[in-house]
Amino acid sequence: MKSMKISDAVVRRLPIYLRFLSELAMNNVLTVSSQDLGQKLNLNPAQIRKDLAYFGEFGKKGIGYDVLFLIEKIRQILKLDKTLSVGLVGAGNLGRALCNYNTYLKDSMKIVAVFDATPEQHGKVINNLIVQPMEELEATIKALQIRIGIITVPSTAAQQVATQFVAAGVEAILNFAPVVIKVPNNVRVHHADFTTDLQSLAYYLG
Amino acid sequence: MKSMKISDAVVRRLPIYLRFLSELAMNNVLTVSSQDLGQKLNLNPAQIRKDLAYFGEFGKKGIGYDVLFLIEKIRQILKLDKTLSVGLVGAGNLGRALCNYNTYLKDSMKIVAVFDATPEQHGKVINNLIVQPMEELEATIKALQIRIGIITVPSTAAQQVATQFVAAGVEAILNFAPVVIKVPNNVRVHHADFTTDLQSLAYYLG
DNA sequence: TAGATTGTTAATCGATTAACAATC
DNA sequence: TAGATTGTTAATCGATTAACAATC
């Protein structure tokens, strides 16, 4: 069980469970069944039970899952039980917008440094963060122990930024640039490219 | 072949092919093999051939695919050969950032209307678009024949906006709010939620 | 022709769902 | 106890990959 390989599909559902569970907790709901969860999240209850069972026996037969307990467990699984530092490169419109999500991400993650290649941006303040030049990227990432990088630069610069992130020791990258970037096997990349999302949507028009 | 059901996984790769093919075209590359494509896009060549073969015989044995021809075909498949009108609700930081992608989306899609619930936003101009009140949503969507909607409002308002979109005749929705929204079966929703992307990334930290 | 590459079938792999004994 | 719901196995479903004849 311990060393079983968990599929990405499972991992990507965990934050969705977490979010809904947090909402339940805010409403003082104490327990929830896989049936409830499935209904609210448009997922099969068996799938939810299976997803959670990969990591332990979190539920009680006949009762369901304790909301607060499950929140704690999923936080641990996702390594969100401590605050993770995030660095962002690209202080354009999108980058600045993302910086303002810090309040939403709350305790689990925090964007702690912003970089940009254009000198005009340097020194500008975004949500209490000072935009730094690229030359300071490596030193800052190491000093602040940044393990996750966000890329919001134009496509043409994305690969170069990814390479710099990796060289500085970043372990995971969220890439918003509409281009496939390549990194070593030990670094994880997720693509958050809304242009491809939009284009694939068009296929489903009647 | 004509009525074969294409999986979402396939549809979501088509825009990625399209983007890279456009880049090749800009560099005056005339043909490309599935091997080349696979290498550049981190995909299996057999998968690429199979994806494309769902829609027709676009390649030439021994040669590969004609770049311009394939671009045209994928545009047709994705219904991107004519300009699609897009409406956006939520003129916050993220919404404003997305409006500036109009130039990138070029001919295939265009955000043509922006709405917001807060009166302070009404009348403001974003990238040549005037922010309209929600009361005008339905009339504007019908008048401009908007078929795709983007939601960039807070989670608490997302479901309501989705319902309004559907009522106004929108056929596909890209939801940036970190919440699962429900729509009728004939409407397609894609979730573009970077907070869950980020949280699932954390799982892969060493 | 020889080499390259497609389109497609078959094999493999993986993910989802159904079913149900265990049990709260 | 009776009803509800888990954890898990088995069945199903679907997606990816390998292999190769066809052919440019």
TrEMBL record, chains A, B:
Chief location category: cytoplasm
Residue numbers binding NAD(+): G90, A91, G92, N93, L94, G95
Keywords annotated in UniProt: Cytoplasm, DNA-binding, NAD, Repressor, Transcription, Transcription regulation
GO biological process terms on file: negative regulation of DNA-templated transcription; response to redox state
DNA-binding region: 16-55
Pfam family, one: CoA_binding
Sequence ranges assigned to domain CoA-binding in this UniProt record: 79-180
Location in the cell: Cytoplasm
NCBIfam families the record matches: PRK05472.1-3, PRK05472.2-2, PRK05472.2-3, PRK05472.2-4, PRK05472.2-5
PANTHER family membership: REDOX-SENSING TRANSCRIPTIONAL REPRESSOR REX, REDOX-SENSING TRANSCRIPTIONAL REPRESSOR REX 1
Subunit structure: Homodimer.
Family classification: Belongs to the transcriptional regulatory Rex family.
Full protein name: Redox-sensing transcriptional repressor Rex
Lineage: Bacteria, Bacillati, Bacillota, Bacilli, Bacillales
